[in-house]
Amino acid sequence: MGFTAHRLCDGVDCLTLPDSRFKTAQVTVGLFLPLSRETVEEYALLPRLLTRACAAYPDFTALNRRLNELYGAAVTGQVTRVGEAQGLIFTAECTGDRYALNGEEVTAECIRLLCEMLFSPALENGLFRRVDVETERRCLAEDVRAQINEKRWYARCRAEELLCPNEAYSIGRYGSAEKIEQLTPEQLTAAWKRMLREATVKITIQSDREMPEVEAALQQGFSAVEGRKPLSCITDTTTQMPELRRQVERMPINQSKLVMGFRTGCAEPHADVTATRLMNAVLGGTPSSLLFRNVREKLSLCYYCSSAYDRMKGVLLVQSGVDEANADRTEQEILKQVAALANGEFTDEDLEAARRCVIQNFETVNDSQSGLAGWYLAQALLPELITPAELQEQLLAVDREAVIRAARRLRCECVYLLAQEGNADG
Q1: Is the pLDDT of residue 217 over 70?
Q2: Is the CATH number 3.55.50.30 carried by domain 4-223?
Q3: What is the pTM of this model?
């Protein structure tokens, strides 16, 4: 599926994706800023504050009444991470204009509302209202603290900290709950103004037709920001640790979590990223992978075993759920599978099964507007965009020698184990 890309103003790029298959229109505005320990909590709270109310609709009742008038439209905000950039993602979704009962321009009105939220929030004496700040910072702090209850996610984050201790990649996308609770209206108002001045902005517009009125509204909003000077969002992909780092952390859990962090020596826009993606699929990214078949199924050493490759940072994490007594052996068997892959000890059937699985996953991207928006937002900081179909063609061109070369670049730099309390001898 094709797209049209062009620049609206300095640091604001727009991508239009005409598609008549969907009955809704969706506009996504992604604001990307360098991930920093000084600003991460401030920026993380902004999507909640900005989508809570605006000057024109200053409370939940007024805002929801307006959304209902727009056929149940929705405007949401979330925080993500792309490499070492923090992404503040605002999405407006509404019924397509052709389905409006009285010919209303629903999409344009929905985007006007989104612009009200971004550029004219609900302020009091020039600052975010204290009651709004107190409510949203409490909710975000609770969400951050609750992450520890999802042990698989928690272990992954801890492994990233161990792998990249002095790098922005080790910073969580929300920051710390303690710092969130200390945020003031003054800090957040300054952060909102700074966000509008310094963010690199990527917009996707999905509807059944070209929508110049939507582009014009967003262009006008960002062009009016005084002193706008977008910052570059650069991810450091060169750092390597001089020696393997290990850490064991203990909690009252039943199933231990083992995470091994690897540097791949390959990150966007490196030419071998596609081969590394396929290598990851062969290793542990699919149900037919070497890790799943051998470490989990054949040897029964763990409850799950999979790998994930972050092509923006160039790191690969292998995650497994184990009994602590099996942790050392599981680690050795994972390294054994990495070595086997680097030595070419996999069949053509292994390679083709992984290739088919990855291609099938890419084919599903076109099945939803959110999938397409996510696809292009993941490429927001790259010099060139590619479609799912183009990436499938690239995957078909990757041979086994390219996969072997990618595997040979893997270097294990950290091993993190989240284990049960009171079992230090395990």
Answers
A1: yes
A2: no
A3: 0.94
